[in-house]
Structure formats: structure tokens, C-alpha cells
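Sample 1 of the test manifest.
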Amino acid sequence: MKIELRDIEMRFGARTVFSNLNRTVEPGTHLVLTGPNGSGKSTLLKVMGGLLTPTRGEVHWEASTNRSEVRKRLGYVGPDLTLYDDLTVAENLEFFHAFEDAPAASATQHLEALGLHDRRDSRYGSLSTGLKQRTKLAFALLKNPALLLLDERSLGLDPQGRKLIPWLMALEPNRTVVLATNDPSEFELGKENLELG
Amino acid sequence: MNWAKHAWRVLLKDMRTELRGRTALGTLILFAVVSITAVSYSLGGFGLTTAVQAALLWIVLFFAAMAGLARSFVAERETGTDLALRLSAPGSAVYLGKFLLNLLLLFILDILVIILFQILLPLGTLNWTLFMLGLGLGSVALASSSTLIAAIVAQTNIRGALFTVLAFPVLLPALIAGIAASRKALDSTPLAEATGELQLLVSYAGIMITVALMLFDYVWEE
């Protein structure tokens, strides 16, 4: 999915997080957002996914500004997203996948790769933080999204789990992936970088 | 008929989480038991008029609904599951699924309230058909508007207080019609003489469900 940021400004009260931001992200690009804490990486990630409206400027997704359309093709993992504690891993994925009109079996197709195959019947609320994040990654892949947004701050993965990020980014070559991170070892994952702050 | 399938999935998911957590049902039942028991003990041997009985019945239903029905959306917001749901499910399906869950909870509450009233504040001879119709249609009206209002207040920081404050004026026509229908039923009035109240409840619920389906995508996506 192609994303065009046109003269984007984001303010929270009197504080301007970023302004005059112009950038075109071509389809299939892997973009890594870097910058110190508070520089607006997570905010920009949500603006790019149509989850936040910028104070000024426009975001175009393949020449459209329709946010509800982009959400249908969006995979997102961020700190403000969680799944149902009272449902199992498989129940969560099957519930969200049911809206896609795709074969039910494909809901859990990534569980093995994400190291969750033996936890599919565990309640989401009983999982450790790292396993919850892996379940959220499986959720983000449910729609086979054209745009995948990953907020590293929320991932909380162990060293083994961190190896999943390159795997995720390489899973679908035409998918646009945007990763917000503070970890210098992940700066090289992107074909493009954007430093904020 | 995709919207119906999607609404059914939301309802099944909510029923499953409700059965495992019992947050809304527990609140509704506890409120009904405590309030009817307290009223029964404070009134003691005083005989209640049918007008007071009808008003008491709907006061209990209204406040129990206010205590429990907002949970369907507020819990999604507080736990952070609303974003996952927003990214996956169409707004109209979410509204219908939550509406059906709230309606189911209200029907359970209705049955419990009738049993408690019969034990603690006996209803005497009444027109059961009219009584059940009034209660059933009133519950549909209550669920239709409180589901929409719950979705709006879930976006704010003062959810609990705001829900009742916003819901009361919106629900007032349905409450007045519900109380009038219940009073006539307790007076053993024939069904034909209460068609005005029942028509008002049907119209109210119809308008609220239509308005909610038209507006819900805006409430849900912003």
C-alpha cells in the first residue's frame, strides 16, 4: 500500500510533536521510524494507519483519504491494543478472523511460526507478556494486511521473539511495513528510515 | 446477510466472555435483589397501589440497566479490546451484537424482577399478557437506546456518571409508556385499552434502532 504524508502536523495541547512532515512510502517498503522517547514515533505510526487524525495536513492511502477503508487492510500491534482475556488464543483469532470471510483454518496458520502452537487453548489473560505480544502479532496478520504497523515499544519480546520481526517483515514482499523502534539493532531492518525529534 | 452473521458472532463472543466473567449479569442481579429487598423491608405491611408498584418496577429496571448495560462497551474500552474490534468488525454488526446481548440480559433481569416482586411485593391479580408485552417491549426500548449511549460514553473519561445522565432524558418516553402499560396490566385492564402505550414502545424502539444503525459507524470509528 502506498502512503503519502502531506504537510502533517500533530499537536497535543500546546505541544507540537512534529510538523511539516512530508513523505511518500511506496508499496512494499519497509520503513523504520526512529527517534528518542517522545519524538512521536507511535503517534506517526497511528496517523499512518488512520487511527489518529493529524492536527493539520492529509494522509493519502493509494490516492484515497478514507480512513475506514485503510483500516480494513491494516495490521497493527501497539500498546493500546489488546485481545480478550477470557477467550483462548485460538478463540480470539477465530473470532476476529470470522469477519474476513476467509477459511476458518487460516485463522491459526501462523501459530506455529510464532511459537504459540502449544498455547492455542490457553486463555489469553493467562499468557506471559511476551506470549501475549506474539498473539497480537498473529492477530495483526489475520487480514493478510497490505499495511503492517509495528510499535516495538509494545512488543516486549525476548531475544528469540525479536527474531520474529525480520520474519514478519519478510513474510509478504508486497506488504508495506512500518516499524517504530528505539533499538539500534533494528534500524537496519528497513529499506528506508525516518528519524523523528 | 453478512451483517447478521457478523452481529451473531459479536453476540456469541460477548455471551462467552460474559459467562466466563459475569460482570454485567452479576451487577444487574445484585442491584435488582438489593433494591427490591430494601423496598420490601422499608414498606413492610403497607399495601402499595398499582401506580406505585408499576413505578417501582420500572425504577428497579432502569437503575439496574444503568448499572449493568454500559459494561458491554466500557469493558472493551477499559481493557483495550475496542481497538482490535474496531479494526476487524463493522460498526453496525457491533451495535446489533451488543444490543442483542443487552436485550438478553434485560430479559433475564425481567424474569428475576417478576419473581422477586411476587415474593416480596405481591402483584396480585393482573393481565399477564399485557404485563409481559409491556415489559418485553420496554426492555427492547431500554436496550436499543442504552446500547448506543454506552458506545458514546465509553469514549469519555467520566463513563459511569455520564451514562445515567445522558440515558435518563433519552429513555424518559419509553419509561413513561412502560410504567403506564405496567400499571394498566396490574389494574387488569384489557389489552385493547393499552394499545397506545404499546404502540409508543414499538415506535420508540424502532426509531432508536434505525437511528443507531445509521449513526453507529460514526460513533464507532471516531
